[in-house]
Amino acid sequence: MAEYATRAAGGRRIAVRTDLEVPMRDGVTLVADTYSDVEDKPRPALVALSPYGKELQALALTMPPQRRPSPMWDGCIEAGDIARVVGEGYVHVIGDLRGSGGSGGEMIGNYNAGGVSLGQDAYDFIEWVAAQPWCDGNVGMIGISYFGSMQVLAAAERPPHLKAIFVSGGHYDFYETTYHGGIMWFMPRAAREGRGGDSGIAHTNVKSRMRERYSPDELKRLVDERLRDPDVAAWPNLVHVLKYPTNREFWFDIVMNNLDGDWYEERNPITLAPNIDIPVYLQIDQGRGWTLDGTLELYDALRGPKKLDIGPYPPMQSRPFVEEHDKMFRWYDYWIKGIDNGVMDEPPVTVFVEGTRERVTGEQWPPKRVEYRPLYLRTRRKLAADPEPMGVEYAAPDGFYQAPLTVTDKVEILSWSTEPFEEATELIGAGAAHLFAEIDQDDTNFILRLWDTAPDGKRQLITTGYLKASHRELDDRSTEGDPYHPHTRAVPVEPGAIEEYVLRLYPFAAAFRPGHRLVVELSNNEPLADDHNALLPPDAFHLPVGRPVTHKIYRDAAHPSRLVLPFTTRAARR
After folding, report:
1. Is residue 558 part of a domain?
2. Is residue 218 part of a domain?
3. What is the CATH number of the domain that holds 7?
4. What is the pTM assigned to this prediction?
5. Strand arrangement of the beta sheet that strand 135-141 belongs to
6. Start and end of every Xaa-Pro dipeptidyl-peptidase C-terminal domain (predicted)?
7. CB 381 within 8 A of CB 517
8. pLDDT tens digits for 75-88?
9. Pairing assessment for the beta strands 135-141 and 91-96 based on DSSP bridges
């Protein structure tokens, strides 16, 4: 252990302790650094835990926050603003999880499966922190994304000295954060391997759950089976990962598990949430790749005092992560320091509405009463409230042919648009898209994006929907405008058959001003760069379709292709 004082970029003197040894119940030792005021007295502590490396988090003392598309943006600097934490009267404790950074032990599988429970380690870590002379016995947690998910796993173990948590941008239902509508998303690769602006996991001793569970011969058979997916076989990185998984252990596990089930459900934070009885503040911005779904499910499952705060559409939050700190300290001042600042007198749910940029509040999600209403795909690429009256012989299907991205850079896109709205129109909630489609292969991707387009052509993405055609089955949770897919098996499509595909549109909140139009775009791959993607990290895209596919979208009287959207029953207010 080393102790010294340093100055943050703003000039604050900070006492630093490095490489503190934290014993776990199984004999493994984790390591941690602490940052506190130079005055030597006990304070409450905020704990940050991840496998990204505690030294990386220390850059928050010297690097100004970076926003995309800055090349200095590093998605793994997520433990929070150290100088701000110290200035607010807390000790900032940043630890390395087992098998990473300077900590001992072995981590098996992603945080939700295999080996020693990371929640168990978090329990031991928090209780050790509470017993130290520099801590007054009161502990909270801090950090976005992986750090946020660790807070939920920790709280589910009920460490006695953990008083409250504040989770920003966490990811919970791990299948839904890695396979959107059954379509593989590459962003988790970046966080694990260190790609596209991410440092990645500080690997020292992490192992694949699949390699632990199966013999080499069994695993080879499973890998060969996975490579029969033409989308996987057409993507060089995935072929490489499947053939040479060493040092890509976590990503290998994700690629190998393309269906939902036990592997993803083990230690699912949403399943564990009913064990949590301490106060929980959940914050997430709309449109993050993790989607709102997991956050909303987690919020509903919590039993103790809770808040839900849904922010504006990204691109992405800063790194080092500094946003949401005002809300976080107000939460912790109330629950940890006992300051009656009125935070619990306010409505539990707050939602930022794109378009009007107002914040609406309520007692639940959605915060306003909504009515699901359809907008039908019509001829001449129109969206309208009334269905198409003509039969298929007159309302011929729209269509597109998409060649694989191995042979073209062009992504074909179909679009439909409303007329300009005559009055302000607000939508808050999840949605659905019913597409009657015919394809000439046994699978494809359906990628739907909804835009708010202004009279001058500027546009804002408001939500997305994804569905791998072979994952089209719905489960019994589905209701009008709120569909769910089990993703537990893939059912090939009969080429040439017209099928109804129901896409889930991720929850959103947007208000269309007079003169604006709602535009929906459909493709089977994502544009390589556009108004939205250009502001995201390079790896924030989905696995393209690896074969040529012709798509026909029917929207006639017998095939009412449509959006089903959550219109609030009151007009939006300024």
Report:
1. yes
2. no
3. 3.40.50.1820
4. 0.94
5. 2-7, 13-23, 29-37, 91-96, 43-50, 135-141
6. 329-564
7. no
8. 899 999 999 999 99
9. unpaired
The span from the CA of 460 to the CA of 527, in Å, is 15
Q: Whole-angstrom Cα distance, residue 372 to residue 563?
A: 10
Q: Read off the pLDDT of residues 371-382 as tens digits, 9 standing for 90 and up.
A: 999 999 999 999
DSSP single-letter state for residue 244? -
Examine residue 351 and state whether it is found in any structural domain, yes or no. no
Judge whether residue 537 has pLDDT over 80.
no
Residue 19 lies in domain = 2-206+266-346
472 to 15, 243, 434, 483, 488: CA distances (angstroms): 56, 30, 11, 11, 11
Q: In this structure, what are the phi and psi dihedrals at residue 425, rounded to the nearest 5 degrees?
A: -135, 125
- Contact between residue 374 and residue 530 where contact means Cβ atoms under 8 Å apart: no
Residue 223 is assigned to a structural domain of this protein: no
Residue 142 has pLDDT above 70, yes or no: yes
Q: How many domains does the chain have?
A: 2
CATH number of the domain encompassing residue 484: 2.60.120.260
Q: Is 272 within 8 Å of 279 (Cβ atoms)? A: no
Whether residues 19 and 132 share a domain: the answer is yes
List strand residue ranges (DSSP E) for 454-538, in order: 459-468, 498-512, 517-523
Phi, psi values for residue 13, rounded to 5°: -80, 135
Q: What is each CA distance from 68 to 19, 197, 317, 502, 532, in whole angstroms?
A: 32, 10, 8, 33, 11
Q: Mark whether 306 and 376 lie in a shared domain.
A: no
| Three-class DSSP labels, 509-525 | EEEECCCCEEEEEEECC
Tell whether the model's pLDDT for residue 571 goes beyond 60.
no
pLDDT given at position 289: 60
CB 563 within 8 A of CB 251: no
Residue 247 has pLDDT above 80, yes or no: no
Tokens 């900590």 correspond to 103
CA 18 to chain centre: 31
Structure tokens at 285: 């911005």
Q: Which residue has the tokens 């629950």?
A: 335
Three-state DSSP class for residue 433 = strand
412 and 473 share a domain? yes
Is the pLDDT score of 3 beyond 50? yes
